[in-house]
């Protein structure tokens, strides 16, 4: 299968290309090609349940034909006995009745057993798919997550993680029905093979009709993925703890609800039009099937009246024909919904086929320990995929090993982008970054990430315990309580946590029962603790003190200076009291390097840094 990537330039059209609303028969059949991979996944989930399910279904498949045949034998025996005027031996008759009763009980029991196994297996498959999805998502790039088409794929794949149990019982049921039909058809063919032909002719119209409408509804639902995502988003924004504050203050609920109502109504009307057409055509086409059934019934009754077949044969044939028709209709209808399901499955596999663009090379180098020379930016330029503008351009500078560098610049100057390149969340669009003389891309990615610790300004507030919120800096050490507490002390989070009713076990945020919310500055202290958890050689803090009060900021920096002694560090800050502590300061403007030097040098230079510094200093006078 072609590898799909989130980059528009090498995006390969898959059989389910969203820009192509109607899918051909060939594409739909080729979607069935996903079933083996799906079953491999089911098999790997639980071979025992898989085999059990298949075995029971095989037995169940033979039941309808056997029961109909026993019914025929019973009727023929009753007629034979009634012709003997009372004195016949009824043992055989009772044996037959007992056999039919036994089969009826067995059939119900097996029916229950299959739903049970389907349910259990379905749950396991759902869990496994979710795990696979999360595992795969973890391998992908930040850049891919920021791409809307990627998000649509992820969204479609996410929907596939639930509801797969339905496909499972559907395919299992389908195979069972096909075997069942085989048994019944064999019985019917013994009497008259033409009946089979009549049967196929009767069920074909409704099959074609249903296929057509399934395809339409798949295309509709697929082409509406972005809108459905927007609906989910509106539902979330309109009713969530994180947004409630602003929604209330700005009185946004009316606006959000109306937007939701308009969009959902549009989708509803499109769906309704399709559903009405489907129901109308379905009625007409099914009537054709009924006509076919009665045609065959006429023939059978006429043969029975003419004496060519027995009354038992009549019931067997009529029963078989009726059962066959409904089974065949079932199979054919299921087939079209099966291809539809298989197409949805394609979405899941498409997602699994997206490959990360940022990865370790073969024979990647280990991260130098310790870093000898440091980083060199050589004419680095970077453009976000979804943007035409250069976020960084012509950037050349060195970050010496052990140096503390501060990044300064106005909003949107490219500071965060620069540190993302340093942590290899992205690769430069042009130029290169060297570490100890080798391209950053030559180093093992996991090793690099372990050695470069970044605390972003939009750090995540995990709705988990305070301890875990610090331990995420080095999650393997989450049970190392002394280390967590030491990190908390350094980042000043210890006093915050001491006030929490549950201490380090206290769940933060209000999403879960007993969760406690922190203030912005308190959260920042907790997040800062992550930097101290990580024994990284390079530490990057992106506006780590923006929410801190003046005293806390001062203390944090005293400690930070001590912690980063001998380490390479980069700090982004808009506060010059923080910035001036750095060895050198790099001033960015519009993605370009404007000035670089120590605080003193830059003040003497009397350029942009001096201007911004004096601007801020004047504010304090
Ligand atoms: N994910 C993204 N996709 C597209 N463009 C982006 C993305 N992130 C940032 N940009 C753009 O890149 C430019 C640089 O952004 P960056 O976040 O690096 O600025 P910054 O200097 O850190 O700003 P601030 O001081 O506001 O945090 C901005 O023009 C921004 O709009």
TrEMBL record:
Topology in membrane: Multi-pass membrane protein
Span of domain ABC transporter: 375-615
Domain ABC transmembrane type-1: 58-340
One Pfam family of this chain: ABC_tran
GO molecular function: ATP binding
Region (Disordered): 1-23
Keyword Ion transport: no
Keywords assigned by UniProt, alphabetized: ATP-binding, Membrane, Nucleotide-binding, Transmembrane, Transmembrane helix
Annotated localization: Cell membrane
Transmembrane segments: 279-300
Gene3D superfamilies xref list: ABC transporter type 1, transmembrane domain, P-loop containing nucleotide triphosphate hydrolases
Membrane found in the keyword field: yes
Basic and acidic residues: bias regions: 1-10
Domain of life: Bacteria
Protein name as annotated: ABC transporter ATP-binding protein
Originating organism: Nibrella saemangeumensis
Lineage: Bacteria, Pseudomonadati, Bacteroidota, Cytophagia, Cytophagales
